[in-house]
Structures are given as structure tokens and as C-alpha cells.
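With this grant's support, we have settled on a layout for protein records. An illustrative entry appears below exactly as we store it:
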Amino acid sequence: MFGYVTINKPEMMVKEYEEYRSYYCGLCTALRNRYKTLGRISLSYDMTFLYLLLSSLYEPETQELQERCAAHPFEKHTAKLNPIADYVADMNVLLTFYKCQDDWADERRLVRKLYGLILRKRSCKQRKLYREKILRIRQLLSDLEQKEKENCQDPDVMSGLFGQILAQVFVYRQDAWSDNLERMGFFLGKFIYLVDAYEDAPGDLKHGRYNPIAHRMDNPSFELDSRTALTMVMAECCKEFEQLPIIENVDILRNILYSGVWTRYEAVQKAREKAAGKKQGDTK
């Protein structure tokens, strides 16, 4: 359920992409420092966005390191590191651990179970730092699981529970901006849940897996309803973002929020339209 909050690279200037990449590499470095090499596997675009967002809002003192890594062994690249990277790395690993648990429960993927156990072992000290936050996230995950067992078919309820989880993650500290960040995380979490359900709907319907919108696919207004719901949720997310006093990297953040988050959705939609057109042509 991750990988949707990314950039729209063709719409970015080269210097903007390099800046974004420096935060991506910085978070990767923080994951290595705190969780060793295996921690880097959990790196996500979604948490890179959070790192860039919080860094641009709070403007902490930031180091610029020149590093090589396994992915780019022959050339050095810039990695930006500041204290926020440690927080986001911890949240990245926390969410990945719960995702591993979910993968094991749903698909019995042994590799994911083992990876989750490794992350859990390496995050013992960090988990003590966020005890209240983790307890809240656990309760929300439990509520989400219970609703799935009850076969809840209300996407607003389900996406709202996931939104509350991301809301917890977005609050870096309690201050003047925590309410905006919490609401922003809530609506972005709702968007991620809904677009993931939209993408997975055909496969989930075919294989009988839980999905709160899959049963609506036969409705003629399914595509329009899906787009409308996603647009409304992202409008609320962007509304909260625009209230934050962010100047640094604001164009990169807007690229992600107004364009990048839609790239996966639009690719899936076009693929379905193409498949539907081909199927219609075959029946003639």
C-alpha cells in the first residue's frame, strides 16, 4: 500500500530532481545508519516525501554528504541528512514491519515474515521513543483488521482508519503546525488507501480478496465515482499543505501533491481503458 506519493519527473527541472534525490538518498543513509543494510530495503517514496516536507517546514541544520552505495557504486551522489531523517527512518521501518505482518497474514509470504522479524529486532530501542504513537497505530491497525473481518463495504470508514495511521506518522512534534500535519497525513492516508483499492480491485474481485470497492466495478459510474472521491480527498490534503509556511522546496512538494500522486492512478486507468477497448474490438 505504498509507492504512490512520488514525483512527476517529466514536470520537474533537473535541479529540482537532484534536490529530491538528495533527500531520498539521505533517508536511505539514515536507514542504513540505524538499521544496517537491510533497513535500506524498506525505503519508500512516501516516506521520502515526509522527510522532504518536515525538513522544508522546520528547516533544521542539514549536512550534505557525498556518498556511494550499492545502487550507485561508481559515482558519488549527494545525501542530505538532518535529525528529521532519523524520525522518518524509524516511521518507515515501523510501517514496513506492519506491512510485513499483513503480507504474512494474507499471503503467507515467509520472506516478508522473516524481514519483519529482523526489523522488529533492530528497532527495539527506537520503539521505546514512540511508545504512545505506536500504541495508537497498533489500535488503528487492529480496528482496520476487525473491519476487514466484518467485510465492511464502506470505503470512507476503511480509508479513514488508514488515514488516522498516517496522521500519527506525520506529526513530528506537538507545536503550532501539528494539527495541519495531522490533517494532511489523514487525507493523504485516505488517498493512498483508496487508490490502492482502486488499483487492486480487479485482482481482488477475481480471487475473492477483501476490497471495499471491488464490488462496485460493474457500476457504470465506477470510474467517475473513484476519480471524484480521490480528487476530493487530495483537495483537502493540499488545503492543509498550503497553510504551512513552507518556502524551501515548495515547488517539489507541489509537484508531488498536485501531480506525482496521480501518476500510478492514471497509468492504471489508461491500461484499463486500453484493455476495455481491445476487448470491445474482439467482440465485434
